[in-house]
Structure formats: C-alpha cells, structure tokens
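Marked as duplicate of an earlier ticket. Keeping the data here for the record.
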Amino acid sequence: MMQNGPVTIVASYNASLFFKGHRLPGLGETIVADEFQEGAGGKGSNQAICASVLGAATRVVMCLGMDRFGDDAQAMYRSFGIGTDMIRRVPAIYSGIGVILIDRNGDNMISVAPGANFNLCERDIDAAAAVFETSYLVGFQLENRLDVVEYGIRTAHSHGTRTFLDPAPAAKLPDDLFPCIDFIKPNEHEATILSGIAVVDVDSAMRAGKWFLEHGVKTVIVTLGKLGAVCVTHGRQDYYPSHSVPAVDTTGAGDVFSGALMAALSKDKPLDEAMRFANAAAALSVMRLGVIAAIPHLDEVEAFLPAFAEVV
C-alpha cells in the first residue's frame, strides 16, 4: 500500500447544456430560451479536476463517446494535467449529456442521458488493475453502472489499494461491499438512505458514521452543508464546522470537498489536516459561480486554512 502517490478516479462525464428562460415549458410546449451555456460535468470528472488542480497526480478511468463532447472532455483533462491513458472511446454512442432547463426563479428541469458512461464495464476495470496498484487511492461515485462500481471497489481493495466512495446518487449497497471501502463520504441525504438513520444534525451524523464503521468502512466523512462535516473512525469522532462565507453558488461544493480530500490524503497528510484542507477548498468554491471555474488553487486554500484550525 503506497504511502503517497497518484489518485485514480473511476469516473463519469456529462456535457451539460443549460437553457435559461422566463419559465419552464409545459407538456408539449416549446419555450424560447433567453440564454444558453455549455459546461462540463459529472461528479467523478469534477473531482478528478479538483484533485489535479490541488496538486495530486491524477488519472481517470472512464468511457467517452466518439463525438465532439468526448473530444472536448479528453482535451480538458489533458489541459489540467490529468492522465487519460485509461479513457476508452466508444464508437457509435454519444458521450454522457445533461439538459438543464432553468426559469427566472432558479427552478429547473433536468434530463440526463448517461450514454458512454454506462458502457464502462468490468473489462475496463481489469485493464486498470495495474494502475490501481500504483495509486495511493482509487475514487468512485455511483454515476456509472452500480455493478461496475462494486466490481471496481472490490478489485482495488483486492490489490491492497485504498478506496474512496462518494455514494452519489445514493443507492443501497450490499453489506459485504462496506469492508472494501476505506473512505466513504456521503452527504446528509445519502447517509440517511444508506444507513436508515435520519441525519439532520451533528449528533445524528455521528450515529450514521458509527453505523458505517460497524458495517466495515474504515473512515466515514458525512458532510452537512452549512453545518460543516463530521469524521468518524475507530477511536475518534470529530466535528468540523463550516466557515461563514458569502455563498454565490453551492453547485459542486461536494465534489470540490471530495477532490480536495483525496488530493490531501494522496500527499500523506494526516486525516485531520486533510479534512480541514477539504473544508477550506469547499468554502472557497461556493464564493464563485460554476463548478470547474470555482475550484480554488492550492495557494488560495493554504492561505485560507487558518480559518479552519478549530475542530470540535
């Protein structure tokens, strides 16, 4: 098991098409939008970019379509210095794409077509086994097919590599998978679904953390939005309050937290330091619009860290 090293993320990618208008259309109705924007998304994709920006040698394992969106994604990863050797381009299928309709009040309607993301298969995991072995940890989310994610976690674990799961979108997991997970990072809603414990505050988050420990997870981080986060391990349970900042856009803050945490852990920072680092990075990100554009640089996070010195 490497003491420090690269972060490998088994990821999904979704091109995001945003249409902003006065109101949302009704059934069978066409509305003329006032504004159009295109962006890059996908939890694993966001986390990989964040980990790389914050100093971790980062690689992705994923599938992209043989289309313009796939070309854009691959070029974007290279521009961020992310290793792309384990990206498989799938002919005759589109890259993942999401269409988001937004009205003047910020309410939205979203449709996502996973496309090539659901072509990631066990063969891709097997091909990445040697990459897993040379990684400090391998990160997963639940935006690929669940059976493939499970297979990937078990494979990385069998090679003695640490595993990190951001269980979103939340889905029930088999009990025998939990002992293969070194770090799990649900938010309060995901922790509630997975544990059956209603997570509404710090105390209930601690109880949920203990539930995951009892099921075999080594380290549990439950994020609580404005309340901050808790970290529960065997022998310790710590609360990391959030810092009051002028929030502009909270989209993607959870991905920034995960990416920053993986980056800090990969540089062999103690868990307490890694938690404060991730907390600071997420706080900085909500002060800016967007997801990728909101990822702070390493020097910004380090300058902001003194605000997160206190652990309750």
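See parent ticket for discussion. The mean pLDDT is 93.
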